[in-house]
Design a protein that fits this description.
It is a single chain. The protein has three helices and 13 strands, in the order ββββββαββββββαβα. The strands form four sheets. A four-stranded antiparallel β-sheet has the order 11-12-7-13, with helices on one face. A three-stranded antiparallel β-sheet has the order 1-6-5, with helices on one face. It is elongated.
Length: 186
């Protein structure tokens, strides 16, 4: 069986401008500008009229996977150009009263399980974090930055060498961005 050419197309939503400079793909929307480098041998990305085309002539399994990966990243960029990705986290402290505060590009977690030294979590650039009581809201136009900042918070309060059924203290992701918009872009 011969390999056939694969072509994937995405429509560019209204109010969003895209450009391609060799391997750098840029998206400019109402609120922000996002850029990312896409390169894989044999996979081509082109912008014509109101469509983004990803294609490969005689694709292998790896090239097919990379086309799917690039398509997902481009969808996230198109959505993020005009909307924000929002993650919600909950602060759970059952044994010791934990306090969470923001300082520049870090979140400082004090008195976690009675520890004397505060734990810290990094906030990635272009990401806003709001602390409202026992809720933390992470927002960004870049999905990777928002997700990684939320994961950093969750990882900072990871418990080891204790029974997790009993010690359920920590910061946990309770809500991730809704992905209903993917159907609109395909």
């Amino acid at each position: 069986m011969k390999n056939k050419e694969i072509i994937e197309e995405l429509e560019i939503p209204e109010g969003v401008e895209t450009s391609m400079d060799k391997i750098t793909f840029k998206v400019k929307g109402t609120s922000t500008e996002l850029s990312r480098k896409f390169f894989y041998p044999g996979v081509n990305i082109s912008i014509k009229q109101n469509k983004i085309t990803l294609d490969a002539k005689k694709p292998t399994k790896r090239e097919k996977r990379m086309i799917g990966t690039f398509k997902s990243h481009i969808k996230n960029m198109l959505y993020g150009a005009s909307n924000k990705f929002v993650y919600k986290l909950k602060i759970c402290s059952g044994h010791f009263p934990m306090s969470v505060a923001q300082s520049d590009q870090k979140i400082i977690i004090k008195n976690f399980l009675g520890e004397k030294i505060p734990r810290q979590s990094k906030i990635l650039p272009d990401t806003t974090v709001k602390i409202e009581g026992d809720l933390i809201i992470v927002e960004s136009n870049n999905k990777e930055y928002a997700g990684q900042t939320a994961a950093n918070l969750e990882k900072a309060t990871r418990i080891s060498k204790r029974d997790r059924r009993r010690f359920q203290d920590g910061i946990y992701i309770t809500e991730k961005p809704k992905i209903k918009w993917i159907k609109q872009l395909t």
